[in-house]
Amino acid sequence: MCLVICISKTNKNATSNLEIQKMIDDIRLSMMNQSHEQYLSLEQRLNQQQTNLLQEQYKNQEINHKQQLELLDMLTRHHAEHRSELAKAVSQHGEVVAKQLNQLTQVTESRLDKLSQRVNDKLSEGFENTVKTFGDILKRLALIDEAQKKISELSTNVVSLQNVLTDKKSRGTFGEVQLYTLVANVLAPNQYSKQAKLANGRIADCLLNLPEPTGKLVIDSKFPLENYQRMTQCEPSDLEIKKFTAAFKQDIKKHISDIAERYILPPETSDCAILFLPAEAIFAEIHAYHQDVVEFAWQKKVWLTSPSTLMAVLTTAKAVLKDEATKEQVHLIQEHLNKLGNDFARFQSRFDQLARHIDQAATDVKQIHTSAAKITNRFQAIEQVKLEEQGS
User: Which function does this protein serve (predicted)?
Assistant: First the structure.
């Protein structure tokens, strides 16, 4: 009985479990259906929202694209306006720079032309003075050449001293001619006198007009020759050579004494005189073998000269006369030198001032070149659309 009751209870429980399981399955199925419906609804809503979002995004893209086009167009217009203004400003600045550069170039060229003209004037003046000096030198050389030709002709015409000098008159004439030729070749006409008459009535062959303290210097061209000729014609072993030698020395000493007495008249003349011996052989003979004659001439202050030594004396006299003339004109020379120094100082000052102007012009041109280079670089940057922010 108990077993039947247990089985009956077991069957009831089994039936109840089946119902419960069925109910659970129905509920699960219902819930699954609801979930599926909700999922489909949610998916539909998501699709709708996605569609709406896509439409909104497309609209936003169209708006952004339109705004970008408008912004790009605005930037392009601003860029064109800025470029036009910049080109106009650069053009105006270039015109101003070109005008200033043109003015600077004109001023520089004008100053350089003036400087060139001054330099040319100074050079022309210097060349003229140089040409004039060379012309004077050539004239002097021509006079010297003519004098040398005359001396050569005179030497050619003198065949023999013994044949020409046959008497005292011939000797005196020959000595005077040679003396005057030498004096005329060295001194100016106003620096000497021919056949000058002295206060004592004596006539000097030549009188040199030297400055003080020397004064007027007499030159006598007469000389004794007879005993010299006899002395030179004797053989070295001849006994008469001593007699002729003594007579020659006596003649020379007497002639020296006569010159000292007649032509040394201080203060009218100098305290000395010159005895001109036209023959170099006589001069050499006296100085080589007759020293006592030379000493006697020194004591009497009569200087013995030959053609060669007289040329040296005349050259010295010319230098003295030239020095005296220079001393007389020294104040004029000094005045001209002072004026020349002042002119050169002004020239130096003006030249330095011009050099400073030229240096300043060079500096200005260099700065203009620098500005032009910067402008060119800025134009290149503009052409390459590489505009940078102007920080300064």
Answer: Involved in DNA recombination.
